[in-house]
Amino acid sequence: MRRTVTSLLLGLLVVAGAGAAESAGDKTIRLHGRDGKVVAIGSVSFTPAGDKTAVKVTMDIHALKDFFLSMREFKCLEGGTEVLCHVPYPYKNPGTITATDLSWLEHQLLFFYKQPADFGAKLWNGVYYKLTPTATGFTGTPQAVDLNAIGAPPARLDLPPYGPAERNDMPAGARWFERLTID
After folding, report:
1. Sequence-distant contacts of 163-171: CB under 8 A, at least 24 apart
2. What pTM was computed for the model?
3. pLDDT tens readout for residues 127-180
4. 75 pLDDT exceeds 70?
5. Could you tell me how far CA 165 lies from the centroid of its own chain?
């Protein structure tokens, strides 16, 4: 009986993950604050491409505020005790995902955080939302990365630079925007 339930649960996870990755169309990107506030910040277009799915992230410029930091404009969201700024991945990349590899979508959702009174961009305070498939899309939990690592092009443009070894889990509640969803 235990084996049957475990097999059933694993099967549902695989189906949910495959369905989310293979879906076509647009889904909304939302950030969830510690205070319960949910903010739609953009969308992802999913287009089937053989055994992969092409993804394109479009940020909603009306939901984000312009910040001029360290001689560069960033689209940011103020929430609670911090400012979260989107950092578009700057290099050519495959822009595709599979049911088991969401890294290029995760790389299009890079952010950094700073305190409202801080001056300049704090790229060492990078936030990488590790995505997990759900029945309706994806949910992301924040991990720490140093965005200075993408200041120069990586040696291979076909490999995502932020693998598991370059990311660290953040304690629960460490970030104001503690979750990202795509659905």
Report:
1. 163/103, 167/128, 167/130, 167/143, 168/143, 168/144, 169/141, 169/143, 169/144, 170/127, 170/141, 170/142, 170/143, 170/144
2. 0.86
3. 999 999 999 999 999 999 999 999 999 999 999 999 999 999 999 989 999 999
4. yes
5. 17
